[in-house]
What does this fold into?
Amino acid sequence: QVQLQESGPGLVKPSQTLSLTCTVSGGSITTNSYYWSWIRQPPGKGLEWMGAITYSGSTSYSPSLQSRTSISRDTSKNQFTLQLSSVTPEDTAVYYCTRNCVDWGQGTQVTVSS
It folds into this structure.
């Protein structure tokens, strides 16, 4: 059974880059047909898909976040990473990593504040 665990700083200052890592166990991020996404939920709002990286390493991003978002992976560690640049308080949210938007990590709270 696959498990996903987000990790990273809980507090980021405005204008800095938010960096989160998702560590996957119980399954390989290179297994054919899987894609690995980042999704966030700001307080009081709905879920927002941010982007994904596929089993082959291809990436896709939400048009509204594309200019600030980068998703990469480390296959040797079975991890994939989110970087969101130039953050503002509006980027405060619970951030989730998922497999195929079916299997989810528990989420990690990130607050953007000086």
Observations:
- DSSP finds no helices and eleven strands in the chain.
- The longest strand covers residues 18-25.
- The mean pLDDT is 97.
